[in-house]
Every structure is written in C-alpha cells, then in structure tokens.
C-alpha cells in the first residue's frame, strides 16, 4: 500500500462506519472525479455524457461502499463500476470515436472495424504478387511464438508503446522490447530480402 | 506504391480481424486478469482477445491510470465539478431518503390464525352451552310446576302381547309428565332389575338400572314426553339373580301426539 492510498482507505473506513458520510464522500469525489471523467473521455464520449457517467459511477460507489473489502485495491473496484457503466451506456446508444485514434469504439458485439490511416491500400496492377506476399506474411506471423506474436500485433495494430504492451500482457517493458526485436529478426529470416525493412516500425 | 510496412499492417489487420470472434470479457474478469488472479490458460485466452480488441485493451490500460492522481487532472472546470457534486449529492440524498410510508393492506397474520381459530371454537362452544343451559332450565321449570291430574299408568304383562282385546294403555296429549307402574306377574325376589324402553321399531331410547320394587312387588318410574315423544313403546323388564340376567316381562305403552 502506497502513501496515496492510505487516506483513501481511511475515508472508506469512515464511510463504512456511517459517520459523516456526505463529508467523506465529497473527499472521495474530489480525489477521483477527474480520473473517472477522463476514463469516460478516453472511451470517446462527449463531455455531457462523461459528466452523466461520472455521476452514475459515484452513485454506484455510494451504493456499494458498504460491501467494499478494504483489503482490495480501491481503484480496481472503481474500475469495475465505471467500466460496467460504460458497457451499459454502449448497449443503449452509439458513441463517438476515441479521440486521437482511428479505431471505432463499438460496432456490434466484437468491436469496431480497424482503419489504419497510414495504409494507402492496394495499388492497382500489383494483383496476385501482393496477395501472395500478404499470405506469406500472415503465415510467418502465425508461426511466431504466442507472446512474441501478441507483442507484434499490439505494436503494429494498436500502435502501443512498450510500456502499454507490457501492461496489457503483464510483462516487463524489457521483455516486450526483446520480443519485438526477435519478431523482426524471424520475419526477415522467413521472408527474405524484400522484407528487409519489415518491422522496423514495429521495433522502434 | 505501398511498402513492406504497409503490407505488414494489412497482414496484421487480417489476423486481428480473424481473431476477433469471442465476446468481450466483463470488467470483473479484466480486473481479475490485471490482478494476476486468472489461471494461465484463461489468462492466455484473454490476452488473445486483448490483442484483437482495442476496446478491452484500452479499458485495461485505464485501470492503472485510475490510480494516477494526474490522470484527467483539470479536465473538469471547477464550476462544472461543483455542479457535478451537487448532482451526485442529490442522488445520494435520494438514496438515503426514507421510503414513502406505505399503508399496509391489513391481512390476518399467519401467527394469529391458530388463536383466532381457538377463539372462534370457544365462542361456538359457549353459545352451544348457553342454549343447552337455557333448555335445561326450561325443562327444570316445567318439571317444577305442579301438574293437575298427572296420570299414573299401570302396565301389566297381558297387555303386551296383544292377545287380549284390552286396549293399549296410553298417555293423553296434554300430559307432559306421567308415572308408569310396572306390575310383574307373581312375586319374585330378584337381586336387581333393569329396564329397557324401546320404540316400536326396536330402537332403544332408554336403558337403566336401580329400580326397586315396592311392598307389592311393583316398580314405578316417572317419565316425560321429552324422553318419549308420541309413538308406541315397549318396556322390557329384566331381573338379575346370582349374576344371571333374564327377561321378566314386556309391556307396551302409547304416547299420543298433541
């Protein structure tokens, strides 16, 4: 437990004991309202929706605070309440796109379509040769070890940093860096000279 | 013309699109994964989903960010924040408000039902007892009143068989109470007597012991119309000697209707 979480635990303890509930709940609100609001901004909601969802999240906290186990991490519990509010809202309305990303937020149960702005699309005339190279690439990527492949996909498709990939896959950033280096080397070996420049982007 | 990296992106996109098949994990499962609480196989399946799903990987990244005090700092103007707090507080106060009083629908409590049944039974028993006592008092009152010319009917054995032309002894309609004298033929010495009064059809209406003969060997008893409503009756007299009982005589009596 770090220094920051100590006062949070004390606030929660007082809230659970029933003493000065409004006052302590205001403290909790002051500590986390901006973060919760930012959480919803990241999901691509407009400002007013973010305020509504933040309000809904804090009411959820108030309702459930009595059952919160203080040996758990408050932010994890807060996350589940906010994420459930988000999913509930998604089911009821279409949202905007995540700021700064080309990825659609939600388009059905399996997520939105991916659009890579940097990709120019196929050039007419390349035809069969391009299709063949694409097939070879897919096969080479599929052959990579699972964790190495996941690192590559997150790097190329979701444009994540080493640190973000490490967080998502529960690895260290150093391990991620090694995985990406190895992935580039293997693809070069597998695919030959045309792909010499391949995965430079992935490894940087 | 597109280069190798564009082709890599396209290939990755195709792989990811093909992998995007399973449903989103719920937030509790994401939190469990983040805490390292999922079994390895399940964690790997979830990782494959995260690779193919920006939404879920984005949620997971923000889980850690919620612990960062700088995350979202100053994204809400102070005035807006105060307004948001007022909205939250109003919701909290609604949650805390006692529910509106509800007028309960009065229903018999199940715990009271046995007592109520007992009370009803006692009431019925009391009413029945009261009626019986009133009837008894009326009977006692009637019996206590002096009656003019209360009949005394002598019964002899010859009258029962109907073999003679003698009329059947009867009780007139206006007589409520009457005395019957049984006259057995001859004079016997019995240890005890028992009398059985039966309707003409055979149903016994009274059966009793304790009769004692007078000095002339006759036995008398006083009867009421309540015991003997209009109809013909047979009086069977039994004598007991040394533990053996035998029928001594049988008489007949008619109670006339009013």
In short:
The complex is a heterodimer of chains A (about 200) and B (about 260). Chain A is mainly α and about 200 residues long.
Question: How is the topology of this model organized?
Answer:
The complex is a heterodimer of chains A (204) and B (258).
Chain A (H helix, E strand, L loop, with lengths): L4 H13 L3 H22 L4 H18 L9 H19 L34 H17 L2 H12 L4 H8 L3 H19 L8 H4 L1
Helix pairs in contact in A: 1-2, 2-3, 3-4, 5-8, 6-7, 6-8, 7-8
Chain B lengths: L3 H16 L7 H8 L5 H13 L1 H12 L12 H19 L16 H32 L7 E5 L1 H4 L8 E2 L5 E7 L8 E8 L4 E6 L9 E6 L6 E11 L2 E12 L3
Parallel strand pairs in B: 1-3, 2-8
Antiparallel strand pairs in B: 3-6, 4-5, 4-7, 7-8
Helix pairs in contact in B: 1-3, 3-4
First-residue to last-residue Cα separation of chain B: 133 Å
What composes the largest sheet of chain B? 5 strands, mixed
Distance between the termini of chain A: 35 Å
Q: Rg of chain A to the nearest angstrom?
A: 23 Å
Count the beta strands of chain A. 0
Interface with most residues: A-B, 84 and 72 residues
Order of helices and strands of chain A: HHHHHHHHH
How many β-strands of chain B, per DSSP?
8
* Order of the strands making up the biggest sheet of chain B: 2-8-7-4-5
Q: β content of chain A, as a range?
A: under 5%
Structural class of chain A: mainly alpha
Regions of chain A with pLDDT < 50 over 5+ consecutive residues? 1-5, 95-120
Helix content of chain B: 40-55%
Q: Count every helix of chain A, treating DSSP H or I runs of 4 or more residues as helices.
A: 9
Largest sheet of chain A: none
Please mark out the parts of chain B with pLDDT under 50 across 5 or more consecutive residues, or reply none: 160-164
Describe this structure in words.
- Chain A is an all-alpha fold and 204 residues long.
- Chain A has nine helices and no strands.
- In chain A, 65% of the residues lie in helices and 0% in strands.
- By secondary structure, chain B is of the alpha/beta class.
- Chain B has seven helices and eight strands.
- In chain B, the strands form two sheets. Chain B has a five-stranded mixed beta sheet with strand order 2-8-7-4-5.
- In chain B, helix 1 (4-19) crosses helix 3 and helix 3 (40-52) crosses helix 4 (54-65).
- Residues 160-164 of chain B have low confidence and may be disordered.
- Classes of the chains: A mainly alpha (204), B alpha/beta (258).
- Chains A and B meet through helix 2, helix 3, helix 4, helix 5 and helix 6 of A and helix 1, helix 2, helix 3, helix 4 and helix 5 of B.
